[in-house]
Specification:
532 residues; mainly alpha; Serine Threonine Protein Phosphatase 5, Tetratricopeptide repeat; 26 helices; elongated
Length: 532
């Protein structure tokens, strides 16, 4: 009977994920890393050649060193080409696998059927995880998590039964997780938390001298994993050196405040996952020392409460520390890119909160017989709400226009959304729509030469050559060593029939990049005119 219950819950879990994410199979690629990772990736088109393998393990394009993730995109392209359905299906199936493996791991490690199933269901259906699943470029989240779950299952064989192959397999799976996404540097630390609960290899009570000896043993057995994680940290900092926001751009006080208040942001989104959009800009209300102080006090109080109940409810402290610890690499102390927060950052950290919720639910279920039916109804209702919200959120990833139109509905001055939506309109040959969005973005980010260049392109398409010239002159003042800016300025002069000015700008472009194709094509046009 118990075996059939476990199997039935697993089947129900898989079916629920497939239904919640069914809409993603009709989605297209979005011009938000999908094209650079898949559609316009020449290595993906080439297939598994020695050159492609060398590229996957040596490139740091887009500030990311994740060879297994890159190879998974190559595999998808070989199987599905530029048909987005297959790529989305791969993400969804990985999420199904992750949900089932999490369920299996918790079931083996704790023996608790319903709390394990509830944790896995919350993980499977929470709307904050849509970004990791419905976004093709976020393959690194679901792929690295799959290897993380394998690490847990292998480690279970070692922690419970001392089977040497378990520790060896856990180490291999940990390295594979790191090769899929550097965020998995947190994995050895999570295994230490599991040593406390559910395995109880390390106690949080009792004489410290004895526990210190045990802790040393637990650390030593994980030395290869810590070494691999340290190496990945070095590679990641090197890979993302261009994406790291300097202290001058985002000072350390701002980062510190944002890091503290980000915990409150993610806790709130865990409870109330609405609205969800990409990307989130920094909220001025959260960037104050008062907000940081209140959030820090709250975090300390919650930690203190869980510590006080560490003997009776160790799952509470471990789940909470899981959440706090696994967010550290992405919380913003070292800031990468433009986002203040991101839904995808919660894919692993929220597991800790789900453990707290599920085991708390289970404790109430056992202690209060009269509450059992209401507790079941509440759990089912919550999961159904999550499933509906997830299905709706998945539809916003239909295409670039839908995704960023949704963002602007909630944050009308989001510069990233404005630029990406404008670029999508340009590619659809709607410069009249694009130029309005580019102009709004330029008011928010006046010193961005790429934005000014895109604005100039829109002006050129609309034959507003004077505007294009002014936008390009501003961009060149900021970045005078860019041959594309000089070439576009030459084009603006060319269409105004100021061939002398066009020649002068073109010469500067060619001096910077003699083989720049766009400049060479314009040089041919100017040469034909001079011969007439």
């Amino acid at each position: 009977m118990e075996s059939s219950t476990r199997t039935l819950l697993g089947i129900m879990l898989a079916c629920a994920v497939l239904m919640a994410y069914a809409a993603s199979l009709r989605n297209h690629f979005v011009e938000y890393d999908d094209y650079s990772y898949v559609v316009k990736n020449v290595h993906a088109e080439e297939g598994f050649t020695p050159a492609t393998l060398r590229w996957a393990f040596t490139t740091t394009e887009a500030g990311l060193w994740a060879p297994l993730t890159r190879l998974s995109h190559v595999l998808d392209y070989q199987l599905f080409g530029a048909n987005a359905t297959g790529h989305h299906l791969h993400n969804v199936l990985l999420h199904v696998v992750n949900s089932l493996l999490l369920y299996m791991f918790l079931l083996r490690a704790t023996g608790r059927i319903y709390s394990s199933a509830l944790t896995a269901a919350l993980f499977a259906l929470h709307p904050m995880h849509v970004e990791s699943v419905a976004w093709v470029a976020s393959r690194k989240d679901v792929l690295s998590a799959a290897f993380m779950m394998v690490t847990f299952l292998a480690y279970d064989a070692w922690a419970r039964n001392r089977r040497p192959y378990g520790l060896a397999l856990a180490g291999i799976a940990c390295v594979l997780a790191l090769l899929a996404k550097p965020i998995m540097v947190i994995l050895p630390f999570v295994l230490l938390l599991l040593d406390v609960w559910p395995y109880r290899r390390l106690a949080l009570t009792g004489p410290w001298a004895h526990q210190k000896t045990i802790l040393r043993i637990l650390l030593l057995e994980k030395v290869p994993m810590f070494a691999a994680a340290g190496l990945i940290c070095v590679i990641t900092v090197y890979a993302e050196r261009m994406a790291i926001v300097s202290v001058q751009q985002a000072g350390m006080p701002v980062r510190l405040v944002n890091s503290i208040t980000s915990y409150a942001f993610y806790l709130w989104k865990c409870l109330i996952p609405y609205p969800l959009y990409v990307p989130y800009s920094m909220n001025p209300l959260l960037l104050t020392w008062v907000s940081a102080g209140v959030c820090l006090l709250f975090l300390v109080l919650v930690t203190f409460v869980f510590w006080q109940f560490r003997s009776r409810a160790p799952w509470g402290l471990i789940g909470w520390l899981w959440f706090l610890g696994t967010l550290v690499p992405v919380i913003g102390l070292v800031q990468f890119g433009h986002h203040a927060h991101a839904d995808r950052f919660t894919y692993v950290p929220f597991i800790g909160l789900f453990i707290v919720a599920a085991w708390g639910w289970d404790a109430l279920f056992e202690k209060y017989a009269g509450w059992q039916r209401p507790l079941i109804v509440a759990a089912v209702a919550l999961l159904m709400c999550h499933a509906v919200l997830t299905s709706l959120q998945t539809r916003y990833w239909k295409d670039t226009v839908t995704l960023f139109t949704h963002t602007l509905e909630w944050e009308e001055n989001n510069p990233v959304a404005l630029v990406n939506l404008a670029e999508a309109y340009l590619h659809q040959n709607h410069p009249e729509k694009a130029v309005v969005l580019f102009e709004r973005a330029a008011q928010l980010d006046a010193e961005n030469p790429d934005l000014r260049n895109n604005l100039a392109v829109a002006y050129l398409m609309l034959e507003r050559y004077d505007n294009a010239e002014r936008a390009l002159e501003t961009a060149i003042r900021i970045r005078p060593g860019d041959p594309e800016l000089w070439t576009n300025l030459a084009i603006a002069h060319y269409y105004q029939k100021d061939y002398a000015a066009a020649r002068e700008s073109l010469d500067k472009a060619l001096a910077l990049s003699p083989s720049f194709d766009k400049a060479r094509n314009l040089e041919t046009l100017l040469g034909n005119i001079s011969q007439q």
